[in-house]
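subagent[fold] <- orchestrator: predict structure for attached chain, return tokens only, no commentary.
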Amino acid sequence: MSKQTNTKPEELLLYAVTDRHWLNGATLISQVEAALKGGATFIQLREKNLDDEAFYKEALEIQKLCRNYKVPFVINDNVELAKKIGADGVHVGQSDMEALDVRKVLGDDKIIGVSAQTVEQAELAEKHGADYLGVGAVFPTGSKDDATEVSFETLKEICEHVHIPVIAIGGITRDNVVKLNQSGICGIAVISAIFGQTDIEAATADLKNQTKKMLGE
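subagent[fold] -> orchestrator:
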């Protein structure tokens, strides 16, 4: 059973999270476009160190690009910026603004994603209006220093206890994504498996195929 949310499970199939750590002289917008060309179905702009003005300009640019590709665009943590530019929504962690409060700021029609590591966190996020959950880290990851590992059993349990879409995140690659088969997720979120690759477009297309196989599509 699923309930009506502001995002569809198929939009969450291959969710790309930006990280300028992998730029190596390229621009973030060129990397995001390569991911979109390769078939990324959802983009989250994640910036930890940009000043407000640069973040605002970058968010507008990437939002425009995502609209051209008809792919949902959300911003990590920064609820005010998401509201200011009219982004499709935000993704918040357990230490960020609570989903209930985010909904009050953004309104009923925006996408709210919440990170969860336990069934209790997942159920509370759903109760408070989350549209989808990002659960992880399902594998060891170098992208987030504070990532807590979540077992396959916990991932599956979360999927069984909520009625909103669940995506797995953390250390996922083209080679280990198959291990998430029959967990109940509708897709995966990745950083380095896309943006850390030499050919981002090809890596995205390949990962999308592997994810579809894992889901039995």
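orchestrator: received. Logging for downstream: The domain at 9-214 is CATH 3.20.20.70 (TIM Barrel). DSSP finds eight helices and eight strands in the chain.
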